[in-house]
Every structure is written in C-alpha cells, then in structure tokens.
Design a protein that fits this description.
The chain is an alpha+beta fold and 219 residues long. The chain has 2 helices and 15 strands. It has one domain: Alpha-ketoglutarate-dependent dioxygenase AlkB-like (Jelly Rolls, Sandwich). A hairpin with a 2-residue loop joins strand 3 and strand 4. 2-oxoglutaric acid (AKG) binds next to strand 8, strand 10, strand 14 and strand 15. It holds the Pfam family 2OG-FeII_Oxy_2.
C-alpha cells in the first residue's frame, strides 16, 4: 500500500523499558527541512570529522552542535579554539517534541538539551556497539533518522553483546532512550543504501541526529 496516500499514524513501540521507537514520526516536508539544516550544519565551523576512537577511525562522519564532541568528551571550544555556538533552538524543541511523542509527556522540569551529534553514514558506514556516556545527566537521548534505512541494534546496559533487539530505523523515525535504558549499548551494524525517500532531498546516505543533555556548564 502506498503510505503517501494512506499515512499511518505514528504509534510508539517500546523496545526495552524506557526505549521507544516511533516509526514515521516526521512527515517528508519536515524531513526535508532537517536534511537541509544538517547540510548547513555540516558545512559550519565545526565541519565533519571521522574521529579516531579506540576501535579505529570511524566510518561515520560527525558534526557536533552545542558542544564539540571528540573521543571521549565534550569541549566548549572547536579545534580552532573558537567557542562552540549554542545548540540550534530548533533541535531543543525537536527533542522535547520527541519526548512527548515517545513517552506521552515531557517531564517537568524539562531536560536542558544543549548538545546534538549529527552523523552521516555513506555506503558501508556502520557504528559499533557503544554507550552514550560522556553526558553527566540521565535525561533521555532523542534520536531522529533521515535518509537511508538502517539496522539499529539496541542492547542492554551490562554488555555490548546479546541480549539485544534489532530495529529497522527509516527516514523520519524517532527513537528515544531514557530511564532504565539510558546507558544501554547500541550501534548501527548496517544501512540500506538507496532506500531514502527522494522527497526528503537526500538521495543516498543516512543522517542521524541525537540530541542530548550534557549536564555540563559553560565556562
Ligand atoms: O545513527 C544512529 O542511529 C545512532 C547514533 C549513535 O548511537 C550516536 O551518535 O551515539
Ligand atoms: Fe550512541
């Protein structure tokens, strides 16, 4: 069935306690706007970097917003020494909307989302199992996917191996992990090149935006 003619309302699926997948969260227009913003951000002062980590050079190219992430900490300055501009407000709003969609409500007080990592996956790019643990705050991580579909592997807080659940994330999907799942291992073992919806302006590749609360204070 053509889902452009019969839009399926997004309904949340709990993958693990506190980890919620909302398929089809953003419509193609919103996805296109975010794709354009991602392109602008990746051309910005922080650029796009394939960081060198303990596991080798990442196949994913990354831009950070709000704080500059490099393995394994957040920095208030870019590599050239200039201060990192604050998180674009559109991403703070997106994150709170994501919490409402995933959990049915925004906690009070709302988390102070101040950092986002924008990842680009070209053909063959993957991300190994890891925890998002450079934050000093247990606010949920809000993840939005654009472009090609992928396998998102969502595991447990104790090991980078089983038990885990493989979820297919497509462009426009939301995934939020907080509460008991906030420190769970997760990764992207593969993407499906050529599956992006051309209406979103991304013909190949996958962007993923994760919005986080660093729990850090600026200078
Ligand atoms: O690309 C994804 O869906 C996950 C990205 C991720 O885990 C991260 O940026 O820490
Ligand atoms: Fe992560």
């Amino acid at each position: 069935m053509d889902d452009a003619l019969f839009p399926v309302p997004a309904s949340p699926v709990e993958v693990a306690p506190g980890a919620v997948h909302v398929p089809g969260w953003l419509d193609p227009d919103e996805q296109r706007e975010l794709v354009e913003l991602c392109r602008t951000w990746t051309r910005g002062p922080g650029g796009m970097t394939r960081h060198r980590t303990r596991g080798g050079t990442m196949s994913v190219a990354m831009t950070s917003l709000g704080w500059y992430w490099r393995p394994y900490r957040y920095c208030a300055a870019l590599p050239d020494g200039s201060p990192v501009p604050p998180l674009p407000p559109v991403l703070g709003r997106l994150a709170l909307r994501g919490l409402a969609a995933a959990y049915g409500a925004v906690p009070d007080p709302a988390p102070d989302y101040d950092v986002a990592l924008v990842n680009f996956y070209g053909p063959g790019a993957t991300m190994g199992m890891h925890q998002d643990r450079d934050e000093r705050c247990d606010a949920p991580v809000v993840s939005v996917s654009l472009g090609d579909a992928c396998v998102f592997r969502f595991g447990n807080t104790a090991t980078r191996t089983r038990p885990y659940t493989d979820v297919e994330l497509r462009g426009g999907d939301l995934f939020v992990f907080g509460g008991p799942s906030r420190w769970a291992y997760h990764g992207v073992p593969r993407t499906f090149p050529g599956t992006a919806d051309p209406r979103t302006g991304l013909r190949s590749g996958r962007f993923n935006i994760t919005v986080r609360a660093s729990g850090l204070r600026r200078g």
